Amino acid sequence: MAIAAQDSANATQLTAVQMMEIGGMRAEWHVVLSACVTIATMVLTIMKLRKKIGKLPPGPRALPLIGNIHQIGDFSRRNLMQMAEKYGPIMYMRIGSKPLLVVSTAEAAHEFLKTQDKEWADRPTTTADKIFTNDHRNIVCAPYAAHWRHLRKICTMDLFTPKRLMSFRTPRTEEINQMMTSIHEDVAAGKEVKLHVKLGHLTTNNITRMLLGKRFFTVDEKGQMEAHRFKELVFELFRASSTPMIGDFIPWLKWVSIASGYVKYLKRVKADLDAFLQEFLEIKKAASDQATAERAKDFVDLLLEQKTVSGDGPLEDATIRSVIQASYDMLLAGTDTVSNAMEWTIAELMRHPECMRKLQQELDTVVGKSRIVSETDLPNLPYLQAVVKEVMRFYPPAPLSLPHQSIVPTTVCGYDLPAGTQLCINLYAIQRDPKYWPNPVQFNPDRFLNCDVDVGGTHFQLIPFGAGRRQCPGMPLGNLLLQISVARLVQAFEYSLPRGTKRNYFMNYYSGANKLTSGIMYLI
Ligand code: HEM
Q: In which residues is heme bound (predicted)?
């Protein structure tokens, strides 16, 4: 009390400057105090968040807001394989605000695609996917829900069954015969044989015949023009849908997609595609009224037969269009994958004449020289199967598979991963892992002789078609087309590299896809 009285008495004698100093000190204390409280709150929040997020896998340092977007150009399958040596088999990154995992060993792939398959059965989506697929009414991008299950069931129970594949044997053989004839004609005329183009036509025709009941690459002029337009549209679709948009990774930058004209461009491509589909749909609807008994049923026939799609009511034109779009995404997933694998097989056989000779000898012994190899011979050709498996190991046609996404928060291999985490399986790294593959960068089909490892999705060191619920439904067709086409090509022709060509001339990559550099093979 006395001190207080004295203080207040002194206070009356304080100068304005002194008063300001005391006031300033009080203010500094307030600042220091509130800074401490803020820092403590931030630390507590981060600790709480950390506790909530749990333990994340290691990975390259992410920057605020953009995450690892600045490194995205380095995310080729090969670079990712090297990064896995540093960070481990499960790498964590952030693309904008989206968490992304890259998995690089068979054991880790097993955890995601087998042990926790259901939790990781979703697909990430983009602005382009949403526009092109009428809100994900296709197979490849569809979320793990009723619509996807419905289409998937038709694929596995009806479309790609051994019985259905058998019913398309005649059209398949016709297509291969046509390709062989056109190669013979080119060779006879002394022309360069663009094998890569011929294989592209072969796979596209085979797949469109099974899906849409239509042969796109024909010899007549109208057919050629239609095929050309069709191919252009599919390529445009592919180009548009694979262009990354910043708004897909940083949601508050979605306006950039609109302002840049990207959304407008996507809608234009979609409108062109719709016009093409509408024309096709009219023909198809008319044809579906006729009995399909005299021809094998295609995918659209099967869907039209259903009349309802997962309780959506009668099949409206819009639904049928989205159904045909499902066929389009199968075309994207199923044509280049198969034709690239065929091309790589022939290229590797040319680079390894000892393997080519072995395969020719097998064909001579099992089939003989007096008849043409047929699909019924395939189970009796173990070396052919070994060659094809080695190509699928060495050059997986989808080296980073298709991305998956987690539906719920999960714990995998001790890491806590939030719902909505994207998953990329580096098949290229897995299938070149020295733990499973001695001399992994050596092309050696013999490694598959007397070995029960196959591509079916149970041996995780070899999963070129993926594994689990989202595994490629076209695997039986892909395998069949690949084996029979390679057998026919090897039985019919002798191959040599162009004079003066180095052995590894053919082995360069196009970015993103496994393609041959020249695409021109000389057959002698
Ligand atoms: C050599 C040939 C092929 C290879 C290597 C291949 C590979 C793959 C891979 C790795 C996936 C992703 C699997 C996953 O997400 O885990 C996939 C999905 C898919 N493939 Fe294939 N594929 C081939 C041929 C085909 C063919 C011929 C078709 C159909 C005509 C086809 C249709 C599809 C579809 C529709 C999906 C998406 C499945 C879904 O999301 O449920 N593929 N393929």
A: 472
> Atom 40 in ligand 1: which residue has the minimum CA distance?
140
pTM of the predicted model as reported, rounded to 2 decimal places? 0.84
Return the ligand 1 atom nearest residue 123 CA. Answer: 40
Q: For atom 23 of ligand 1, which residue has the closest CA? A: 334
Atom 12 of ligand 1: nearest residue by CA position:
402
- The residue extents of the domains of the chain are 129-391+441-509
Q: Is 466 in the pocket of ligand 1 (CB under 6 A)?
A: yes
CB-ligand 1 contact for 400 (6 Å cutoff): no
> What whole-number distance in Å separates Cα of residue 422 and Cα of residue 97?
11
Contacts of 463 (CB under 8 A, 6+ apart): 109, 113, 401, 425, 427, 430, 431, 455, 457
Determine whether the shortest distance from the Cβ of 476 to ligand 1 is under 6 A: no
Looking at the CA of residue 471, tell me the nearest atom of ligand 1: 13
What homologous superfamily does CATH list for 129-391+441-509?
Cytochrome P450 (1.10.630.10)
What count of residues does the chain have? 524
Taking CA atoms, 482 is separated from 296, 344, 476, 478, in Å, by: 21, 11, 10, 6
The set of residues, in sequence order, having a beta carbon less than 8 Å from that of 502 and lying 6+ positions away, is: none
Question: Does the annotation place 155 within a ligand binding site?
Answer: no
* Each residue's pLDDT tens digit, 359-391: 999 999 999 999 999 999 999 999 999 999 999
Tens-place pLDDT, residues 64-92: 989 998 887 777 888 889 899 999 999 99
Question: What does the angle CA 254 – CA 259 – CA 262 come to, to the nearest 5 degrees?
Answer: 80
Among 465, 469, 482, 485, residue to substitute to test ligand 1 (most atoms within 8 Å of Cβ): 465
